Amino acid sequence: MPKKLILLLTLTLVLATPTQTRAAPHADVEADSATLDFPNTVTFSATLNAAAEIVDVTLEYGNEQLTCGEVIAKAFPDFQPGTSIDVSWTWDMRQSGSLPPGTTIWWRWRYVDSSGAESVSETQTVTWLDDQHDWQTVSEDMVNIHYYGNNQAFGQTMLESGIEGLRRNKEQAGMTPDVPVNIYVYPTYEDMRDAILYEPQWTGGLAYSDFSIIIMGVSGDAAFDKGTVIHELTHVLVGRNAFTCIGFIPTWLNEGLAVYSEGGPDSSMQSQLDIAIRDNTLFPIRSLGGNFSEIPEKALLSYGQSYSIVKFMLETYGQEKMDQLLTALSDAEPVDDALLRIYGADTDGLDNQWRESLGLSALTVAQATAQPTPTHVPTFIPIAGIPLAQTPTPGAIPTSSFDESTSQPSSNNPPVVLTIALICFCLVFLLIIGVVVLGFVLRRGNKGGKNG
Known about the structure:
- Helices cover 41% and strands 21% of the residues.
- The chain folds into two domains: 28-128, Immunoglobulin-like (Sandwich); 136-400, Orthogonal Bundle (Neutral Protease, domain 2), CATH 1.10.390.
- It has 13 helices and 13 strands.
- It is of the alpha+beta class.
């Protein structure tokens, strides 16, 4: 056998042989637990033991969700060095932001003793959910319904709605779940809002596609509640089927698919849409790529218009092209490029096609060039509608060209204290002048009297 070939085979065997890695010794951990104060905090605690004095402790923790890479958070609890130490650390959701109910939280302890030996505890998990209620669960075909405060027939009805939502989304847009979808149904909207932090108070349902979790309140209207399940389920499927780390999914597409899958807009949305078509006051599609308007009438029109756009795309071009579009967005292809390649028109071209289908003329106004900010968590309007005093989404961006950052009054006015000081100075100055003038007049008067 030629020497070069022998050398090549030897090198290949060396490279193919797995290297031995030194694993950290198994940790001696007692009372390893997580205590929940839902929805505010979770406290991790344990007793760590080692042969030598423990000099360094790190808590590694995180939650299970769809991400672009492994995410490990680290905390460094205070402790007194020793061979057996008690440690604890509290994760405060009021500072970091709330996790959705039903999230799986994991944690482990990593510590080093004075000899340099490192130990790692087994990974533990806990479900982030309040345990004050008697949660019931019914499951079928990648849908898990969790509920309390209602009977078994209610749970089965919600489950059937979830199954119907999967069927519609598969047929209409080719979307299927990659993991089970967990839907937490609260008996009232108030109960749902008490389970989360920093969310709009008008919210009737929330979809967390990264976690494959939905939370919703019950309105008492069975048809509306079924629609809520399908609406939010669609958001989860869109978020996972078009998941991207460097691109974004236009809100009009996300909300349009959700309203379409639930069977169409409600009367308030349809009314706003009909008025806008009649008066030719529809929003440009490009302006609906980010957060919807904070004005109730505009928000309702945004939902209704998004539905109409998606309906036009599905009924004109079919399900297969919608599936291709979601795949393209998942691959971080720019929206305009994806639309142009799949539908033969960019956002403005699609806008004109859709308007033509409604009997309206093409757009004539100049379009904004800035890319809109994507909606992080799509929301659903409760049956009572959007209160006039509330904003539809946190940090909402109006769909018009109005810019709040440039419309605020100027803040260059002098401070109040300085203004008062200047006024006082002027008054004193005027008083001094008055005294001088008065003295001058009296003095002349005295002289005139003597002369007389």
